[in-house]
Amino acid sequence: MGGYIGARSGTISATVANVQDVTATDSTPEVTIVNNTHEDTDQGREGKVIFKGQQSGGEESTLAEIEANHHGSSDDEKANLIFRTNDGSDGASPTEAMRITSQQRIGIGESSPDTNLHIKSATPIIRLEDSDTSAYGEISASSGDGNMFIKADEGNGVGSSGIRFHIDGSHVGRFQGTSFFLAKTSAGVSSSGGELRDGDNDYAVIGTSNGYSPFICNRKTSDGNLFVFRQDNSNEGIISVSGSTVTYGGFSGLHESSGIPPNTPIGTVVSTIDELDVYPNTQDGETHPKAGQTRADHAKVEVSNTVGDSAVYGVVTRFDDDGKVMVGSVGIGSVRVTGACAKGDLLESNGDGTTKVQSDDVVRSKTIGKVTIGNSSTDVKLVSCVLYCG
Questions:
Q1: How confident is the model at residue 363 (pLDDT cuts 50, 70, 90)?
Q2: 252-388 domain in CATH 1.10.10?
Q3: Which of 318, 328, 326, 333 has its CA nearest to residue 370?
Q4: Which residue of 94, 304, 361, 375 has the fewest CB atoms within a 10 Å radius of its CB?
Q5: What is the pTM of this model?
Q6: CA of 134: how far to CAs of 16, 23, 157, 159, 175, in Å?
Q7: Range list for CATH 2.40.300 in the chain
Q8: Closest CA relative to residue 338, chosen from 349, 328, 329, 346
């Protein structure tokens, strides 16, 4: 190596006052600092490069340091490499910013890193920024309650950003807006996979499978509920299991149909006609994939207009957003009844969309259901029943 300061052997005594620039020129230029104190103490054998500067008033301070020292107290060669910077008021003792230990671990704000990269501060944040768009993502643990945050496009530099997960080079899931997609990249039921949404303006959960059950609900060894259904946070129905028996609680079996106007009163008796129902034009606000096609085995309906009608299909329970009527046929329901009725009475069509008490207690093809709560009023009213016509 050319350009030595002083002799190749012996010591050098040089200060900032008389050495301004050092240049080493050869094919493998090196600077070697040797601590000749014989010791094995932790942080001993230290060597340091100090960077100093002077302010406009002539005050001198240490700007930064790079120090190497012994790691541990054994008679070995382990070392730390420490980087310190002045945070603005450190004087001659700059603050440690980062170190690399003998285990090849990097500590930022941490002098004893436990992992390959250990970052410690009051607000530890890693930022990754795309130089093409200036959009950036962050990983942080800057919460007082120990939470971890993964943020995509935190500054909203691009919009419609997401967090994606890949395994073995393949996409396996992603967060997009307020939705999570598992094993799929697009919303809806056209592609297999799972989907979770916020549920405020759309469905909350969707599962699509090809050749397998989209959902499996497995209760282990104990009997009890599989699903609990709530409305306004009040339990309204369940699906439970006991041994090999599955039970539906709060149950009403419905048929989807069409053929009557959506202002038809709830509890109105309807009958089938010799015509198939058709799929609606829209589904979830989009064009229905089977719009206008007939639905196998789904009959259209009309308001029952025959006394003792044997073609009764059920009673109107509600209409959906597409104007399709939901016809209650089995389970519990409310039925429009003309005349007084008592609990246990069987009901048949009155020929005007209401029912009347059947003349006998034999369940027949015309029987709509059985009254569960009697009502002595002779007016047309809704009466609670168990439906038999499904």
A1: very high
A2: no
A3: 333
A4: 361
A5: 0.63
A6: 43, 40, 6, 12, 20
A7: 252-388
A8: 349
